[in-house]
């Protein structure tokens, strides 16, 4: 049956892909780590406890770097894949997928070089794993992670913190509930002092996922044995202890072949007076099979939770990719289409702001309803139409010949002078609406999700919109000021015709000042009239007060008119234009652009592009993993 082997093979493939994507566990991941969900076997133990030796004898090959000090400085993920009898043995690195290593001394060298590539020659450690797959008829399917040995002191050239750094790194692997701990302790040392057991006890107190391995049985003092440990009396684990005899340093120096070493180990247990009764459950070959079987069953049990994690991640990634949007087309036609679509998306939001689907448009009405009337109220007509000023202006208008009947020129000057005050509020209304519109453009750009990807297009649209608003503002200002100028150009005759006459009290209401000159009583007030009606002083204070108050009511009338017409001009020239033609000019410009210029506009934020690629790759991995898992679980 292919299924059993393929379960470990499946996890191996997923692990390799995880590393390629930078997922090797840890908490800084944006998405839940698939790596963390996969069961794995981590080898832990003190320095020189025999970790490398155990790994090599499980593989049946010499391939790990040796030396004093901390040799293993990056996790080594060792994936063993059993091949057909008689096939060539070879190794492959995750970072060198094209190259097959058949010479295992080169594997050793590549591990060293690749370690240095990431950690530098400074002998630092790094949590980024090296992936090594070994394909051989002499291995069982198994994945093991070799970790730096736990150490007590930093050696020369290594920072003091390295002791703690190693412990933290090892800890980060073994604390994961999916990690199977292969705890290596040397038999020639009291088990109570074993670093591996100390760590395993911390993270797996019930001993459920810890496999105890006892090395160096051959180095125990004569007359002593490790039966108390191997039979679980010294330290209890849920899993059986396995005793190992690796090559001694002398064997290594003599280049004793791994196959010969395995043979020697078998003989050791078969003939040992202490351990022969346990012989079938001792040794590195047995350990490899035991771990392989265990790993398979753990993976099988985990498949439902891995599947659900994968499904959840696929959902997350798909929705995230949905937010990021599709990659951009390459041909100019499609690019133009994309740009126009994006402009329309922005324009839609802008219109919603104006029309009230989104907030902000109401501030334009605020300008007409509050700002403009308030500004009009504040105009200094009191000062302009003070008695003193009226007298001054009327007298100046009269020149050497004082007016005889009514001060026509004086009236005109007073009114024209007053009307010029309206220019300020008219311009201010235009500007206020301009700033509201500008702010709405800014908001709409920020709220346009589709545009987020394209900072260049974003600023091009903003630039074009603001330029258009600027033109609308100019036009609007001209129109609003024209309204004011029109008031000055032609006065409302009716108003003056309806003015009460200064001779009103003598009974001539509604008369025309000019016609009334015959009655000859302008400038009088009732009291004066009774006193000396015919000889009333044309230039008395009351006369000027009346002129001032007439002008003031005329100005009030104009104020009412402009209060209504300025908003009409502003809406017509600015708001309506912005709503209908904001990007018109931009559209004609875009239509003339060549392919390269269009592509430049769709220049994406590189960080975003990178993110989309990452997510897409990850999504592909997860989907592939899901398909593979489906196929193995159905093959059962
Ligand atoms: P590591 O630091 O944990 O990787 O330990 P190594 O595998 O490099 O082993 C350290 C030393 O102990 C080497 O010289 C090995 O030859 C020796 N050694 C390891 N296991 C055994 C064993 O079972 N018997 C003997 N005699 N020597 C061993
Ligand atoms: Mg080692």
Question: How would you describe what is shown here?
Answer:
The structure is a single chain. With 636 residues, the chain is an alpha/beta fold. It folds into 2 domains: 4-318 and 623-633, P-loop containing nucleotide triphosphate hydrolases (Rossmann fold, 3-Layer(aba) Sandwich); 332-498 and 551-603, Four Helix Bundle (Hemerythrin (Met), subunit A) (Up-down Bundle). Helices cover 57% and strands 8% of the residues. The chain contains 23 helices and 9 strands. A 9-stranded mixed sheet has the order 4-3-5-2-6-1-7-8-9, sandwiched between helices. It is rod-shaped, with a radius of gyration of 47 Å. The termini are close together. Mean pLDDT is 86; it is low at 504-536.
What is the name of the CATH architecture of the largest domain? 3-Layer(aba) Sandwich
Give the overall form. rod-shaped
Going across the major beta sheet, what is the strand order? 4-3-5-2-6-1-7-8-9
For the largest beta-sheet, the strand count, sense and barrel status come to: 9 strands, mixed
Helix % is 55-70%
What's the tally of helices?
23
How much beta, percentage-wise? 5-15%
- What is the CATH level 1 assignment of the largest domain? Alpha Beta
Q: Report, as a whole number of angstroms, the end-to-end distance.
A: 9 Å
Instruction: Write down the CATH topology of the largest domain.
Output: Rossmann fold
CATH superfamily of the largest domain: P-loop containing nucleotide triphosphate hydrolases
Runs in which pLDDT lies below 50 for 5 or more consecutive residues are 504-536
Question: What's the Cα radius of gyration?
Answer: 47 Å
How many domain units?
2
Overall pLDDT, averaged? 86
Number of strands: 9
Q: What class, by secondary structure content?
A: alpha/beta
Ligands, ions, cofactors: guanosine-5'-diphosphate, magnesium ion
